[in-house]
Amino acid sequence: MGFYLIQTLNALSFSVLLLLTGLGLSLVLSLMNFVNLTHGSFVLLGAYVGAWWFGSGLPWWLAFPAAFAAAGLAGLLLERFPFRQFYARTHLMQVLLTYGLSVVFADLMRWGFGAQIMSPEMPELLRGVIFLMDMPFPIYRLFIIGFGLALAAGLWFAVDRTIWGAVVRACVVDRGFVETLGLDTRRIFTAVLVISAGLGGLSGALGAGILSAYPGLDEEVLILALIVVVVGGLGTFRGTVASALLLGFAMTFAKVWVPEFSNFVALGVMAALLVMLPSGLVAQKTRQV
Amino acid sequence: MNRIETVNRTELLRAEGAAAVPQLGRRILSRVALALAVTAALGGPLLLAGDYQLRFLAEILIIGTAVLSLDLLVGFGGLVSLGHAALFGGAAYAAAITAQYWGADLIVMLAVGIATGVVLALVLGVVVMRTISLFFLILSLIVGQMLWEVVFHWREVTGGADGLRGFPPLTLHAGVATVVLNSGPTLYVAAAAVAGLALLAAHCFVDAPIGRALVGSRERALRMSALGYSIPAIRLMALVASGAIAGAAGALYPFVNQYVGPNAVHWTMSAMMIIMLVIGGVGSLYGAFVGAAIYLSIQTYLSSYTDRWQLLVGLIFVMTVLVMPQGVVAGVRSLLGRRPAGGGGVS
């Protein structure tokens, strides 16, 4: 019983990381219809910044704003050039451009941070464990769950319930109309991309505590985030949450039950879902013309 | 009204005919020149290059053939697959495993490779055919990664992370004589033959009604299905043709380096093929070979000078997407003032 509680919490903390990464990607993909494969690079950048910060002796909690800012700044620069020119292009061209950029960034980061695995020295407060039903569970994972869920709830509120969220959603439906109302849609898109990149960096820093930072992390994260967003269904908050939970739990429990073929089973579950529901768990109704 | 139209049309036809005669002559001339150039380009290395370079050229031709098969999907079907390495690498493993038991007869290897490619393409197709664009990309990626998991963990058969090495040399039974294809020149000739046949097959496929229907399904899927075409069937056929070509290329792959590892199945290999395809030119069939040559040359020759070769490949790739979205082949063509190649698929 205790074992399964611990595994459930493990799965939950992994799901929250997936959710944060997925939500960042989903903001840009669903709201702006822009396939941003450099998202994994933002996550890796955040992970490196976080890992460095934890080890530097500065106040540990500032690592998260720092990772957010670093990735957000990278997003801002990239949005100026060349993302902006590609919003109107086909998905294929966006995929090509952003994948190429992620290859460049991966090599730049290998150059800058070295090729070895960076495992940060965690602060005293987060290093301990608490006992749940006589089983030890790291406090840091509980922190991730709480922090991540709060952040996701805040994001949902901002996009779904505030006037700014409404403006962003309106930009996607009819950009020209929003322009007519006197709003600068280019600035709105810039803001969304910066927030998305920042979220990627933040989840990287959060994950750095358990996954550490290493070259290749960007690709792994990117693939998982893409699967989460696409299986969830484009443009739905609920879908992304549901598929992040599904993938997190599938991967964790597959590792418990069939360790040898855990990824195979988890991928198989996602593939089966996508085959049964070809436009995602929560599909938006679209009209073909 | 009618008469005027008829006159206009005949005049138009005549004008076209008049223009067509020198054009035809020029076209034949350019075809001959092209054939001579290709023969020289393929035959030259045999006389000039050493064993190592010829093995390298064979690898370019083999990977280029796999990229060519991907071009059928991406360039003509608009289906960007991130699981294409599964077809190529799966066939490579099948050939390597068969060779360990039955010996490596070229014809048997090609048959095994093509069969594996077709079977994997059918599996991929059955899973993937209901979706399009981003969903196709992700689903093909997931299916490809599932195969990678199998290859990586099925240690007894595939060698796991170490891969397989030490196969018998590739042989070809020609009548009574048996040719052993284990040196650079022989492997190069075999690879060139397979690449040439694959190029021919791809050309035939693209020019056939099925190829046109494939382009139609890319451009206006809804109209095509209104006309009575079955879009999933067209795409499945393209996928099978592509799988067969990728499988033929994959069958030769283990014998060039005497090694096949799980990386040949990994999705990053698929991404690499897409990079090569884009550098060479999406929708231009022989652009696939140009792209493979550029990428592999950078990888092989530059990596001995600098660790930053991936950075350079990435930058070249990004610059290609930004400046020459039609690829190097079409880019050079338009520099020479000629219209870009048909097909296309990017805009």
UniProtKB/TrEMBL annotation, chain A:
This is Branched-chain amino acid ABC transporter permease. GO terms for biological process: amino acid transport. It is found in: Cell membrane. It comes from the Bacteria. It is a multi-pass membrane protein. Keywords: Amino-acid transport, Cell membrane, Membrane, Transmembrane, Transmembrane helix, Transport. One of its GO terms (molecular function) is transmembrane transporter activity. The keyword Nucleotidyltransferase does not apply. Belongs to the binding-protein-dependent transport system permease family. LivHM subfamily. Its main location: membrane. Pfam families: BPD_transp_2. GO terms for cellular component: plasma membrane. The chain crosses the membrane at residues 12-30, 37-54, 60-78, 99-119, 139-159, 188-215, 221-249, 261-283. The keyword Nucleus does not apply.
